[in-house]
Amino acid sequence: MAALIQLVVLAAGDRFAVSAAEDQMVSQIEASIIENLDCDVTPPTVSDVSIGGFPFLTQVAFGRFKDIGVTVEGVPTPGPRISAVEAHLRGLHIPVTKMLTNSVGEVPVDEVEATVHLDYKDVNTYLADQPGAVQINPVDDGDQVEVSGIADIPVVGSQQVGGITTFEIRDNKLTLVPSEISLRGTLDISIPVPGGLGNLLPDIPIPVGALPFDVSVVKAATDATGLSLTATARDITLPEADTKPRNCSAADTDRS
């Protein structure tokens, strides 16, 4: 019974330490995300910070944390709105002496893997301002994505164009690549076109840069609600939590 009580006390202490550390990591992660934001940009929201691995106190003792999960919403981007970034930071190095003295400072991280979620509605809002009035919609519960737009056809003139598209990653950009199209309206012709149809319906880059934790997009997938991009990074460093990198002046705040 005494041994059982000790285990319960240790487990409770372990979970209490996890909760305190999670609060501290929120500040650390927020500092990392706002580090390069302009003063007129609203910072993203950090939520659902969770520290994985048990026991936690053993990780503290060795100064290396296995896995920290976090959700970031409202990420500013030059392209379509990003609904959420769900990230896992693995291998965080924080010496126990820094933890005990509350002077964590910068935190090296071995690797980051994130899932970047974009809703079709937000992607279409971005595409509406691009040439060709291109729009995308899921078919077969998102197993495939249909693309539609307007193209100038020699002799015929402006023509509705539609068909199936794929997505590729090029230079950390999501690229919409039409693979089979049909001409709709005056003509009704299906044309298999690997890699797009030149200037008729060209490949369309969709920027998703400036993601948290310096991750780069490596893979794209689709489902019924939108796009899920896999993004990774290695050997990054989180800045110290009390850093205020934007250093916004009153004039900057008034302009924003």
Describe this protein's structure:
With 256 residues, the chain is α+β, with helices and mostly antiparallel strands. Helix content is 23%, strand content 43%. It has a 6-stranded antiparallel beta sheet. Strands 5, 6, 7, 8, 9 and 10 form a 6-stranded antiparallel beta sheet that branches. A hairpin with a 4-residue loop joins strand 8 and strand 9. It is elongated. The N terminus is likely disordered.
Offer a quick outline of the entry.
The chain has 256 residues and is α+β, with helices and mostly antiparallel strands.
Mean pLDDT, to the nearest integer, reads 75
Q: What separation lies between the terminal Cα atoms? A: 62 Å
Residue windows where pLDDT falls under 50 for at least 5 positions: 1-17, 192-199
Please write the string of helix (H) and strand (E) elements.
Answer: HEHEEHEHEEEEEEEEH
Overall geometry: elongated
The share of residues in helices is 10-25%
Q: How many β-strand stretches?
A: 12
Q: What does the radius of gyration come to? A: 24 Å
Please state how the strands of the largest beta sheet are arranged side by side.
Answer: 1-2-3-4-12-11
Number of helices: 5
What's the structural blueprint in terms of helices and strands?
Elements: H1 2-34, E1 45-52, H2 56-62, E2 64-73, E3 84-93, H3 96-100, E4 107-119, H4 120-127, E5 135-139, E6 144-153, E7 157-170, E8 173-184, E9 189-192, E10 204-207, E11 216-222, E12 226-238, H5 250-255
Antiparallel strand pairs: 1-2, 2-3, 3-4, 4-12, 5-6, 6-7, 7-8, 8-9, 8-10, 11-12
